[in-house]
Amino acid sequence: MRCSKLVLAAWLGVAAASAWAGRPCSEAPPKPEVFRKAMAAGYASQQKLEQLQPQPTVALIARVGQDLSEYRMRYSHMAFVWRDPKENGQWRVAHLLNECGTAKSDLWREGLGNFFMDDMFAYDALILVPSQPVQERLQAWLSNPAAMQQLRGDRYSMVAYPFSTKYQNSNQWVLEGLAAAMSRDVDIVARPQAQQWLKLTGYQPSDLQIGTFKRLGGRLFRANVAFDDHPTDRRMSGHIDTVTVDSVVAFLLRQNKESRTYVVEAKPLPPL
User: Where is the signal peptide (predicted)?
Assistant: First the structure.
């Protein structure tokens, strides 16, 4: 018991030291309760990953960053979680984050606790484990920063169209990374290749029904929302096709039959 407490204390210390990764929106420190909930969610996710048999080396993880019940969805943001061989096999999260208030984004690598620090709507998580061959290819890709950057778009939009390289959202970067790992006939090193492969393999984006008034409001008042990459006929009829957690999960389960999903409910942290 004492050993597990020491490990947990060290894990919390690492998370606290880098709690600001990718959060330029506010300079105020997180409230203690928010910090504790985030650490509990990260710890529960780590426990789940380590309890699975066989234990994965790479998985996908999704969080509830905002309320999407209007669109009948639960999870809003997806990332890769993997054992980083450069850090003694510790679990690390890799994902695309939007720079607050702008149309810019960048790739971040951080701990599991930090993944839940971005003002969550709820603290449960979804873990999606692909087949072992896909995990192995993802591990190689995640260990190559240049390869990850090749699939990163320059401009961010929350509702980026899946088959255009004009913008990119966070879930789209994960999906295009999956395409690079799952493609066996083509070596995918650029976004157009990934999108063409996704088209050919039948990827279906989520259809968000967003009316004209809401579209105009989003475009005028939020730098990280754009609709001009969407087909005109679909856009004008209020149909916005974009990459969501739901669509990524559905695609991977259909294309990679060995994939499995697990829901993680955060529980109070054990006492130190």
Answer: 1-21
Question: Angle CA(192)–CA(196)–CA(201) in degrees, nearest 5?
Answer: 150
**Model confidence pLDDT, tens digit, residues 225-260:** 888 999 999 988 888 999 999 999 999 999 999 999
Ramachandran area for residue 101 (φ above 0: left; ψ -120 to 50: alpha; else beta): left
> What's the number of CA atoms in the CB half-sphere (13 Å) around residue 102?
12
pLDDT tens digits for range 57-111: 999 999 999 889 988 999 999 999 999 988 888 999 999 998 877 889 999 999 9
Report the candidate in 126, 86, 91 with the shortest Cα–Cα distance to residue 14: 91
| Residue 109 CB coordination number (10 Å) | 20
Q: In the structure encoding, which two tokens stand for residue 251, read together?
A: 């695609």
Q: What is the rounded CA–CA span in Å between residue 155 and residue 67?
A: 24
Q: Where are the domains of the chain?
A: 2-264
What is the rounded distance in angstroms from the CA atom of residue 179 to the CA atom of residue 166? 18
**Cis amide leading into 85 (omega within 30):** no
pLDDT per residue as tens digits for the range 166-225: 999 999 999 999 999 999 988 999 999 999 999 999 999 999 887 544 444 444 346 688
Considering the entire predicted model, what is its pTM?
0.87
130-161 per-residue burial string, b: 16 or more CB within 10 A, e: under 16? beeebbebbbebbeeeeebebbbbebbbbbbb
Is-contact 56 135, C-beta < 8 A? yes
